[in-house]
Design brief:
Oligomer: homodimer
CATH class of chain A: Alpha Beta
Helix content of chain A: 40-55%
Radius of gyration of chain A: 18 Å
Order of helices and strands of chain A: HEEEEEEHHEEEHHHH
Largest sheet of chain A: 7 strands, antiparallel
Structural class of chain A: alpha+beta
CATH superfamily of chain A: Coproporphyrinogen III oxidase, aerobic
Number of domains of chain A: 1
């Protein structure tokens, strides 16, 4: 098998494996009371696999009001309006992309919401991208800052193992990205974000991608176990709705992923899976 | 006083008068239990009136979970990125704009949500714009269709009085505008929408604008009195949340008013006043 085909296979298989692990852990935290419901989708309206597709898994439970895990492997030709705007598409419109995307909105306002995404893209060039960020209800409370510190420490570890200085860079990238300019507010307490990652050492980059996924579920599991015990009141719930309204504004007004998905006529339910189960303005 | 200055004054005074009338009627339907809370804002961050401003009125009540009425009169120079994109700004960046905007989200899923907006804009050219549309929870029920029919009949009357054939045109404009392309769904059951209205008979155009405002509150009041009595159940409430999620998607992803407001650094709370008080995905 050609190296590139082997890499594609390794990536899409990894994303599926990680999806299974995340769904299993999240279901475990639900203590078996709620299950993920899976739904496959294909890009081709005629139902063939000639353009790829994906699988969406959604759980609506007691601990997690809404947890969504998407995997997809899509390929074909990028649309005219995107040609030249994505690296390696100046002279060819062929692309291949595989990835996983997770958004979790817990019921308790004391458990932070979380997002994680990793992907591998091939055009005439190829690169990894991804990241994760944490959104506690209260962005200033001692409890939230403590959880965020733990989250960041784990991220710092894998980033610095991958490449010295990368944590600071990816953290800033995350802060710059998950930001609501119209409110002059951050979306949450950050994390890491990176794109166009290609160090010319594919194995190393792929290994980092896998570590991002594993660190995500390990860290978040600890955070949930820890924050699940905390009591909350009506004020906390109100603030959670407020935080979620900002989350919605970010995802619909600013998120590149949402824009890209809608422009490329992706699966609407999968693209908007990130939106909170309940909110208000 | 120069004719143009007189027209500006007539318009901004009318919008204020209409605002008072709408707030009074809505408060009346609340049976005095909830009141509008008013909040003035200025465009100039230094707090002067050199760029204009507005007043936002919001009521959170029993019949109306959220009712917002904005008036504003703003002026100055349009930003570089808008120059030439708005009629009459090819050779000058001066503008003046005054308007009223109303969005009402009732608590009962049996009472339709409604939106109305009218405005007068002056650049090197000048024109009126506006419209209104109705969004019942259930877009297909007999009750909803009956209420929408009444709403449309009143609109047809004033449009046809203003100019033969305009109802059909403005109705189509509304259907085309309040549409979610990513869902291939209408936002609601329509109404009218018009822009760049200048028949060279200012008094006639202004008179039409006033009729739009008056017809709006008269029609909606009847609709509320009529639909308020209807019993509803959990299924209706669920569908209302669903409808509101689509409303939010439209306003954040597609609405020109939202985009224009954010691009021109308008008042964020006023721009996003239209978003529903409670919803979910």
């Amino acid at each position: 098998m050609k190296k590139i085909e082997e890499n594609k296979k390794l990536c899409s298989e990894w994303f599926e494996l990680l999806r299974n692990r995340i769904c299993q852990e999240i279901q475990g935290l639900e203590e078996g009371k709620s299950k993920f419901i899976k739904k496959k989708w294909l890009r081709d309206p005629n139902g063939s696999n000639r353009m790829g597709g994906g699988e969406m898994s959604v759980l609506r439970g007691n601990t997690f009001e809404k947890a969504g895990v998407n995997i997809s492997t899509v390929f074909g030709k990028i649309s005219k309006n995107l040609k030249g705007k994505i690296p390696g598409t100046e002279h060819s419109n062929k692309f291949w992309a595989s990835g996983i995307s997770v958004v979790i909105h817990p019921f308790s306002p004391k458990i932070p919401a979380v997002h994680m995404n990793t992907r591998y893209i091939i055009t005439k060039e190829s690169w990894f991208g991804g990241g994760m960020d944490i959104t506690p209800t209260n962005l200033k409370s001692k409890e939230s800052l403590k959880l965020a510190k733990f989250f960041h420490r784990n991220l710092e570890k894998i980033c610095e193992e991958y490449r010295k200085g990368s944590y600071k860079k990816y953290k800033k990238w995350c802060d710059d990205y998950f930001y609501l300019p119209h409110r002059d507010e951050p979306r949450g307490l950050g994390g890491i974000f990176y794109d166009y990652l290609n160090s010319k050492n594919w194995e190393n980059d792929f290994n980092f991608t896998r570590k991002v996924g594993k660190t995500f579920i390990d860290s978040y599991k600890s955070i949930v176990v820890d924050s699940k015990k905390s009591k909350w009141n009506e004020e906390d719930k109100k603030l959670q709705f407020h935080r979620r309204s900002r989350y919605t504004e970010f995802n619909l007004l600013h998120d590149r992923g949402t824009k890209f998905g809608l422009q490329t006529k992706g699966n609407i339910d999968a693209i908007l899976m990130s939106l909170p189960p309940s909110t208000g303005w």
